[in-house]
Design brief:
eight-stranded mixed beta sheet; D-Amino Acid Oxidase, Chain A, domain 2; binds flavin-adenine dinucleotide; 2 domains; single chain; 380 residues; 9 helices; FAD/NAD(P)-binding domain; alpha/beta
Amino acid sequence: MPSSSDVVMVGGGVIGLATAWRAAERGLRVTVVDPGSDEGASWAAAGMLAPISEVTYGEEPLLRLSLEAARRYPSFVAELEAAAGTTVGYRRCGTLTVAADGRDRAHLVERHRHQVGLGLAVEWLGGRACRELEPMLAPGVPGGILAPDDHQVETRRLLEALRRAAASAGVATVADAVEGVRVESGRAVGVVTRGGIAITGGQVVLAAGCWTGRIAGVPPRASALVRPVKGQILRLRGSAGAPLLSRTVCAVVAGRFVYAVPRGDGRLVVGATSEERGYDTTVEAGAVLDLLQDLAVVLPGARELELVEARAGLRPGSPDNAPMIGPTAMPGLLVATGHHRNGILLAPVTADALADVLTTGVVSTLIAPFRPARFAGAPA
Ligand SMILES: Cc1cc2nc3c(=O)[nH]c(=O)nc-3n(C[C@H](O)[C@H](O)[C@H](O)COP(=O)(O)OP(=O)(O)OC[C@H]3O[C@@H](n4cnc5c(N)ncnc54)[C@H](O)[C@@H]3O)c2cc1C
């Protein structure tokens, strides 16, 4: 049990683990503190690496970070797989976003125009061309957008690989929840856990996802602005010999958004709702029904699949839905949270940038727009 480290990482989701691993690779002694349940958003996530298909109006700075994250993913995966001795199911399969009918097609035409205006690599396909790529799509699908550079990773294998890589780089773990940050003369000097363990750290990083604001001793504007955004998500299983899809398919169905991420062996991850419901993680029959009904409109064969899991995860959302990465106003205290619906995609870029800050104190231009201090004037 380490009583002192260079870095204490509060939270062992994808952000905490990736950052801990990268910091340890640079020679820092790192301790990750996490209760060790699978309640985090990372365990629920689908693993879409889709900055192009998911681009949203007004989020251009986030798009730049997301595109850079996608560009770095292959080398990150190669290094991680070598360090962990295991694979993470990274697939360069592309993403096809289809419409269910003419009205939904109009929505996608508008989205396509936006993507083209941003210079993104997308191609508009008619219904027949969509079905040539994905023959199991419903005959009524009138068209869609192909984003060949949007990929996917198997999130749970990614987490396992990060745990292994971190352990082999010397990262220590404490299976407990952090109660609060210890502060001396205005500086963060470590944490104390609910089990009463005190761990001293030269720097403390808050990476506890949507629970970051619940940790005591933290200046309110450093973290209390993070909120949970509920996502209900399903896991289906079909035949490994005859998978329904070969690439990720997103669909707009009567104005609602649904996606299906194929794992290549007949499994499909189907998601996801986006709800402002506090810390509620109830799985509701209505949400399961909506997701499956919407999916079946564009992919009728999904009705035959086995429903193996339904769960809700809580995305960490910030006031502008962009991440908060970097030092806070309190010396020794850093934050890495607020990754909302893109944390799996943004983990490598966050980890590398934060490892830079932890080792050199320098905040790179890439993450500068995401400083926690941008909310300094906001009510806590
Ligand atoms: C349904 C759903 C689908 C998603 N799909 C995608 C996707 O396809 N692509 C994508 O890029 N992103 C996706 N996301 C978003 C992504 O999952 C999150 O942005 C990302 O997982 C956030 O990682 P995190 O490490 O910050 O938080 P989390 O994964 O939530 O981890 C936080 C960790 O902190 C720990 N913790 C909590 N309290 C304490 C405490 N007091 N002390 C110590 N530890 C504590 C928790 O146990 C947890 O392990 C999805 C999210 C959801 C919910």
